[in-house]
Amino acid sequence: MTLIYNYLYKEIILLTAAIIGVLTFLLVAVSMFKVLPTLLHTDLPLWLAAKLMFLGVPLTLTLTIPAGLLAAVMIVFGRMSSDRELLALKAAGIGLAPVVAPVIFMAIGLSFLDYWLVAYVVPECQKEFNGMKHEIVINNPMALLSPEEVVDKIPGWKIYFAKKEGTELDDVILWQLDSSNRLTSSIRASRATIDLDLEHQQLLLKLVNGRQEQYPRDGDAMKAHPGGHGEQMVEAVSLNSFYEKVQRKLAWMTLPEIEDVIYEMQTAPTGEQASPYLTELQARISFSITAFTFIVVGVPLAIQTQRRETSFGIIITFLIVLLYYVLGAVGRGLKGHAGLYPELIIWTPNILFQAIGFYLFYRANRK
Known about the structure:
The chain is an alpha+beta fold and 367 residues long. The protein has helices at 2-41, 46-54, 57-82, 85-91, 96-139, 240-243, 255-267, 275-288, 290-305, 310-333, 342-345, 348-366; strands at residues 157-160, 163-165, 168-177, 183-197, 202-214, 225-238.
């Protein structure tokens, strides 16, 4: 059995590591493309952009670790079943359980790693990620502004301009909105210069050849009437919302912090719904055992299909992962509906897949 275990561990560990590495690299590269506009249009240091990117790696690993293990198992056991190696082992008196045991232990170990990531590491990384974005906006508000795009990140304003050189903007259009996001006025200018007023927490736009239009309360652009105009106009854009302290969000809370909030709600009711916190708590625990669930369903499925093609294993892996996370997303989507018990529904993917997996194990063991 030692020879068999060495073979399985070598094949599955190497293949799992390779697949996790490739998937993680691809997903991180996609996130990098989201950072590129900020890099291209601001003076943001490269190391800071790289740090922002790598803070997303732990969250990516919670997805790629179970998927990588499942793909490796589908490929290795599919090939062993197709080559009749499992049949030869059975003829030698070695059952399916001893052969699968190393992979099960590996899946349990990776599930503990996933639990550590989702319970502690991912929330802290997401909190730091958002905190860094907050600091970037405070110290470099020009990071908010990208040419030839409608900038809607500043509450109460939408800004468009054709070109940016330093603090100079060309062909500028400002739209001011009320608290209900209805259009109240617009300003067009051939050029604008931006100054940061830290004392009053605002951007000062010095507009050249500005023309203003006012809109009625219903926001109907057809009823606009002329407002002020002039060769030199100054418009103040408030950045107060970006200088406020970053509020606590559920995604930034570690598992012990969520448990503390739930306990406080039970001991001193505040009227806030506990369902989102209960659902998040159960979701993190449930999804931390994804690697184990994938192995339970993946090993017997690979044996039953008896296909050695790598492409087949990848396709089956993709379908299993897609279905699993779609079912999980349904449970998370119901977190605001306490009467439907979303904290229990969130366990549906694990219960369903493990039930199917144990049934397939039973059938494969009888053959």
